[in-house]
Write a structure and sequence with these properties.
Radius of gyration: 22 Å
Largest sheet: 4 strands, antiparallel
Shape: elongated
Order of helices and strands: HHEEEEEEEEH
Strand order of the largest sheet: 1-8-3-4
Length: 181
């Protein structure tokens, strides 16, 4: 797995200027910005392709009489939300209120509580909301954009395999050359 410093060095090699001190035209900050721009774009494309790359999961505590739950940091897209039950996990159905109202209060508790969900702002809303509390009542499987590469020792996440890193180097090289023309 290449580090930011190694990726930047590969871009410099492609540009024909192997060191920053020998480079009056290409600055480390600009190369780093183009590498991170490409890193984010490739992540978005892979997420949209639905390959499972960058999929994360987090447990969500159910809170009595609370319908709104915050989306995780970096969240881009939900893969699925499941309800933990004694017989395993049960997927929740996404239900957008367009023409029909959904039930907002339920008498079901425990394993029989299987709400639908929808999005509102930076939250997902459970309908009906739970009338009980449960630690780790849901598991939210989602896609997230990874943090930008900031330090020289930072590396792309392990699921960002070597051929994609090669594409990052080519992307940053082309952006650097086109910015200088």
């Amino acid at each position: 797995m290449s580090t930011l410093a190694q990726l930047r060095q590969r871009v410099r090699y492609n540009l024909g200027e192997p060191t920053a001190s020998a480079s009056p035209r290409f600055f480390d900050t600009s190369i780093n910005n183009h590498l991170n721009e490409g890193y984010r774009q490739y992540q978005c494309m892979l997420i949209e392709a639905g390959e499972g790359t960058f999929a994360l999961s987090t447990d969500v505590n159910l809170v009595a009489n609370q319908a709104s739950y915050a989306l995780p940091a970096g969240w881009v897209k939900t893969k699925k939300i499941e309800r933990y039950t004694t017989w395993g996990t049960m997927p929740l159905e996404r239900f957008e209120r367009v023409d029909v109202s959904n039930v907002t209060v339920s008498s079901n508790a425990g394993d029989w509580y299987l709400p639908t969900y929808r999005y509102e702002g930076n939250n997902f809303i459970l309908e009906p909301y739970p009338t009980f509390s449960q630690t780790a009542g849901l598991v939210h499987r989602y896609y997230a954009i990874q943090a930008a590469l900031a330090l020289d020792a930072d590396s792309p996440v392990a699921s960002f395999i070597e051929p994609w890193q090669d594409m990052l180097v080519v992307y940053a090289t082309i952006k650097e050359l086109s910015a200088k023309d």
